[in-house]
Amino acid sequence: MVWYEILLLLLGLLVGFMAIGLPVVFAFFAANLVGAYVFMGGDNGVLQLVRNAVDSVQSFALLPIPLFILMGEIMFHTGVASRAIDAVDKLIARVPGRLSLVAIVGGTLFSSLSGSTIANTAMLGSTLLPEMYARGYKPSIAIGPIVAVGGIAMLIPPSALAVLLGSIAQIPIGELLVASILPAVLLAVLFFVYVIVRCRLDPSLAPSYDVAELSWRDRLMPFVIYVLPLSLIFVVVVGSILGGFATPTESAALGAAATLVAAAAYRRLTWQSLLTSVRQTLRFSVMTLFIICGSITFSQIMAFSQASAGLAEAIFSAGLGPTSLLVGMLVILLFLGCFMDQVSMMMITVPLFMPIAQQLGLDVVWFGVLMLLVLEVSLATPPFGLLLFVAKGASPETEMRDIVFSVLPFVLIVLAVVALLIVFPGITLVLPELIAR
User: Which domain holds residue 192?
Assistant: First the structure.
């Protein structure tokens, strides 16, 4: 079989299994079994597939995934994160779109502690949306910031999805985590500026209201008590990597320990909250390890059957430049994001895109950050953007059409940042270069 017939067979099997209702992870395993039997020597190929699957999840580098997930679950289930959001609420005074700005600042803060996009959006939606609507905020300025800042959790460490992408794509995880920080901060700043400018131009979007008069001490003390100590967790995780004191795995362990200490210090850690956090962590971690098994073995079959090499050769023979090919890959991700979840997109595209990126000589860390940004956009693109449905669950009375239109300006901001990073890749690479020094 020629390479495109192999590629069509494997992808066709994958799509077919998903079309009959098989979960994406098991659809990958089923396609892998067929591919291993056909292209890797029958029964011996299947046995080799099993060995490869076991080896793929025995890597010490995968330990940050359950540890980062555990950090976010503890923050969420102990209520420590919600107290930090309340402290931010008291700190921000009379400014246009005040509650939307609270969502952006608080969401960015929680992202640096949890790395969970769904938890971020769900918490902000349940705590801030009711008050926003009670104050007369329009959906276009209420829901948009909550959904947009929820996606930032995919970028700011600790990000389990960044670790997953690094594991599947063989990108240095520590460098990928650190390289995502500046783009995430840039997005948060642009979201903040956009809300202020838009609310100044149209004050009816977020009517002003009287805020309780508090002294500076009353405003600052909750921030000092509930936010600054938590920011030390971020410093522990990122600082240990930047300083070269710890590997990503060791920094994740330090972060998990610091999170437990913080929850206990605030007297919010109970056996029930801890058991719930551990149970949720195990559930997500097992699912993630299955995903890694399926994706890595799929990549190996693609390489063994020469399908990846054939696809790369066909693309390069078209005579397109590196920038055109890069933009083309990102556009494919955007298109898939309208119909698929982020994990499925990574499993399908990474085995195809990474050989092309490497042959083009692209910096894999920079390319990984661009992929994460586009994956973040896909969280908010209709018809199946996951965070759109999370926002709908938090605000059932809001029409999905209004939710989509409220998120659209923030999607455009993210795409503008993607274009900026393509033109100026140094924005992404400056922190990893500091580590290298």
Answer: 3-436
